């Protein structure tokens, strides 16, 4: 026992000696290492990690980050990497400050803090209408975004990281604020991604997210959404195309803390080859959160018998007069529809692609109401199509 | 004599180990309209699926030739590209795939397979509108997902629209009349009649004689228990209408 303690101290001494320039980051690493020694990492015996083996994440390889198709729409103003957070010219209305809060609450956050590379805090003032694009190439970075009263922002986030990337994204929406958030995941196959997203939605504020997962590698996204004041709206949609050894775990917890809020979640996963998709979605309606409108639907398609999907929608309700629904479906491509298309002369591969695109497409529907959303939707549709073409070509060979 | 358009010879087929077609033979020459009538469960839809190449319908004997070429080993899209078309008894709904997109993809894939140029967007749209109008198919319907939210009659008209756009030489219509009121039946029949020609063949499957007042056949066949048990001209349909299928079935089991 004493030896083990000594080993931790030596490690910490080494970290201090090899500390980065930024004193805040250096402190975060030391604090993370200390906390990790105490907390450890969750094993698969922990219910929330039942379907995801963190050990596989730790084996990720450093290679090269990929490019993001969203760069065609808006070139990134902020780049997160193993070298920290690089902030370029920001859209008007967006202010930034350095920030070093790595918020250690458990083993996972301790690991991230221990590997800390950079952090940034952003404040969106009223009137910032231009999109903000954050390109995530890796490292362990913390980003905090506060959208001020009645401010609106379109946030584009491209995670194209190699190696093990660990990101903490904390979003706070003040009263009447509106954030439209598009997330793209397109990373090398041997990469791993531990993302924690926390969202606090204020009075009459709106948070909308559309995620597209093209290349997951090993990914776990933990979402903690808090509907904390009356009249808030939340929508989260995700479409994932999983192939090869891809592992994608979306664990989302939505907390309706107060009355008169609504949340809508739609998740669609398509898994081929040996891919593994996980959707754990918990909606909690707290005592007093009357008149809550909360819905979660998770639908999956299995393209091969070797692929796996786990879906666990959960609902806990402690309030009255709520309208809540949750559900999950999992199946194969509709054989009747496939035959119908082929009987009209559409080749099998293309018929499959059409049906899969149709299956995923309603995830992108909210974009239709976003400024410039049609263009984003077109880019994402094309990227999904290209990814699907690659999957069927690989299978057909 | 020229090669028959469709020549089915001693065809045996089964579904899930259950023999359904038991030695069916039928020849359709260019320019001919053949009607197939028969009781429920006789194997009419099975015949149509076997001709179109649906998976799960296993051919255990016999042959199907299209213009002299054996097609039983071809996949559905290849059969479509050489000019075979099946109008489904129960057209399939495909959520998320727009009707116009579907039609355009189908038309262009068939053209590609035949080594023809693809239609451009404007050329296609013109052709689609021209084909849709006499079938009372609105632009709004063309924007909707394939058959989703379509009434029974709309689905059947959509089948005829696809047939018109794809211009096949051999059409199999599986109970395209069932569930239609008399006005819808006329629209569908007019659509089919407009496609008749000296180089086209039709196999019109129906349960009722009524359709054959509008699409007048050259030959009528009775399909029962997986075989053609009786053939004649259009008067056979009228006779069946009077006597029903009971006599035929009794004749078989006797
Ligand atoms: N997919 C299937 N699985 C099992 N049996 C089937 C299937 N399709 C058809 N059959 C059986 O085959 C027989 C013929 O059916 P069908 O071809 O639909 O007849 P019809 O169109 O003449 O009414 C029926 O006994 C039916 O139950
Ligand atoms: Mg039938």
Characterize this entry briefly.
Chain A is α/β, with parallel strands linked by helices and 397 residues long. Chain A is built from 7 helices and 19 strands. In chain A, the strands form 2 sheets. Chain A has a 10-stranded mixed beta sheet, with helices on one face. Chain A has a 9-stranded mixed beta sheet with strand order 3-4-6-8-10-12-14-16-18.
Structure explained in plain terms:
The complex is a heterodimer of chains A (397) and B (254). Chain A has 397 residues and is α/β, with parallel strands linked by helices. Chain A is built from seven helices and 19 strands. In chain A, 23% of the residues lie in helices and 40% in strands. The longest helix of chain A is centred in the last third of the chain and has 24 residues, at 373-396. Chain B is of the alpha/beta class and 254 residues long. Helices cover 37% and strands 28% of the residues of chain B. In chain B, the strands form three sheets. A six-stranded mixed sheet of chain B has the order 6-9-10-3-11-12, with helices on both faces. In chain B, strands 2-1-4-5 form a four-stranded antiparallel sheet. In chain B, strand 4 (57-66) and strand 5 form a beta hairpin. The longest helix of chain B is centred in the middle third of the chain and has 15 residues, at 99-113. Chain B is globular, with a radius of gyration of 18 Å. The A-B interface holds A 334-337, 339-348, 350-351, 354-355, 357-359, 361-362 and B 52-55, 75-77, 79-81, 85-86, 88, 91-97, 102, 105-106, 109-110, 113, 145-146, 162, 166. Residues 15-16, 18, 20, 38, 40-46 of chain B line the site of adenosine-5'-diphosphate.
Structural class designation of chain B: alpha/beta
- The CATH homologous superfamily of chain B is named P-loop containing nucleotide triphosphate hydrolases
> The biggest beta sheet of chain A, please?
10 strands, mixed
Overall average residue pLDDT of chain A: 93
Question: How many structural domains can be distinguished in the coordinates of chain B?
Answer: 1
Bound molecules: adenosine-5'-diphosphate, magnesium ion
| DSSP, total strands of chain A | 19
Helix tally of chain A equals 7
Widest sheet of chain A: strand order?
2-1-5-7-9-11-13-15-17-19
Q: What is the arithmetic mean of pLDDT of chain B?
A: 93
Radius of gyration of chain B: 18 Å
- Percent helix among the residues of chain A? 10-25%
Strand percentage of chain A lies at 35-45%
């Amino acid at each position: 026992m004493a030896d083990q303690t000594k080993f931790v101290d030596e490690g910490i001494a080494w970290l201090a000696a090899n500390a980065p320039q930024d004193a805040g980051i250096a402190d975060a690493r030391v604090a993370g290492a200390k906390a990790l020694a105490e907390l450890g990492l969750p094993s698969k015996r922990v219910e929330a990690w039942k379907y995801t083996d963190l050990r596989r994440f730790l084996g990720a390889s450093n290679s090269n980050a990929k490019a993001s198709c969203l760069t065609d729409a808006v070139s990134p103003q902020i780049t997160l990497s193993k070298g920290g957070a690089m902030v370029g010219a920001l859209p008007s209305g967006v202010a930034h400050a350095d920030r070093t809060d790595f918020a250690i609450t458990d083993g996972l956050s301790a690991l991230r803090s221990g590997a800390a590379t950079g952090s940034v805090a952003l404040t969106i003032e009223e009137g910032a209408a231009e999109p903000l694009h954050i390109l995530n190439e890796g490292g362990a970075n913390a980003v905090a975004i506060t959208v001020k009263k009645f401010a609106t922002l379109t946030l584009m986030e491209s995670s194209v990281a190699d190696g093990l990337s660990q990101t903490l994204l904390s979003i706070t929406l003040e009263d009447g604020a509106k954030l439209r958030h598009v997330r793209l995941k397109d990373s090398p196959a041997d990469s791993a991604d531990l993302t924690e997203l926390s969202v606090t939605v204020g009075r009459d504020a709106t948070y909308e997210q559309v995620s597209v997962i093209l290349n997951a590698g090993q990914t776990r996204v933990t979402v903690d959404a808090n509907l904390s004041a009356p009249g808030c709206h939340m929508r989260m949609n995700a479409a994932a195309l999983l192939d090869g050894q891809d592992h994608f775990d979306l664990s989302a917890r939505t907390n309706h803390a107060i009355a008169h809020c609504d949340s809508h979640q739609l998740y669609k996963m398509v898994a081929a080859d040996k891919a593994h998709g996980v959707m754990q979605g918990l909606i909690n309606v707290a005592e007093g959160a009357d008149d809550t409108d909360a819905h979660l639907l998770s639908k999956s398609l299995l393209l091969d018998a070797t692929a796996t999907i786990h879906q666990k929608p959960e609902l806990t309700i402690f309030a009255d007069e709520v309208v809540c629904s949750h559900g999950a479906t999992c199946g194969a491509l509709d054989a009747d529809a496939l035959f119908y298309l082929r009987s009209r002369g559409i080749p099998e591969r293309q018929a499959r692609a059409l049906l899969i695109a149709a299956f995923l497409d309603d995830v992108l529907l909210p974009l239709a109401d976003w400024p410039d959303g049609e263009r984003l939707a077109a880019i994402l549709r094309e990227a999904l199509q290209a990814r699907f073409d690659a999957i069927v070509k690989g299978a057909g060979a | 004599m020229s090669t028959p358009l469709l020549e089915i010879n001693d065809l045996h087929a089964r579904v899930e180990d259950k023999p359904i077609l038991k030695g069916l033979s039928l020849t359709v020459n260019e320019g001919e309209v053949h009607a197939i009538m028969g009781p429920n469960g006789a194997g009419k839809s099975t015949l149509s699926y076997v001709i179109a190449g649906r998976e799960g319908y296993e051919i255990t004997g016999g042959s199907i030739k299209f213009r002299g070429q054996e097609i039983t080993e071809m996949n559905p899209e290849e059969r479509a590209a050489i000019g075979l078309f099946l109008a489904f008894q129960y057209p399939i709904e495909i959520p998320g795939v727009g009707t116009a997109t579907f039609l355009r993809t189908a038309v262009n894939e068939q053209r590609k397979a035949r080594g023809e140029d693809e239609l451009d967007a404007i050329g296609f749209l013109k052709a689609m509108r021209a084909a849709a109008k006499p079938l009372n198919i609105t632009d709004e319907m063309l924007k909707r997902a394939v058959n989703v939210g379509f009434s029974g009659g709309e689905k059947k008209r959509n089948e005829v629209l696809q047939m018109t756009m794809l211009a096949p030489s051999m059409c199999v219509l599986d109970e395209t009349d069932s569930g239609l009121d008399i006005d819808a039946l006329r629209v569908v029949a007019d659509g089919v009649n407009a496609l008749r020609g000296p180089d086209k063949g039709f196999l019109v499957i129906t349960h009722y004689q009524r359709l054959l007042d509008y699409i007048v056949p050259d030959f009528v066949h009775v399909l029962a228990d997986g075989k053609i048990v009786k053939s004649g001209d259009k008067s056979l349909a009228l006779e069946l209408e009077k006597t029903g299928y009971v006599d035929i079935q009794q004749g078989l089991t006797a």
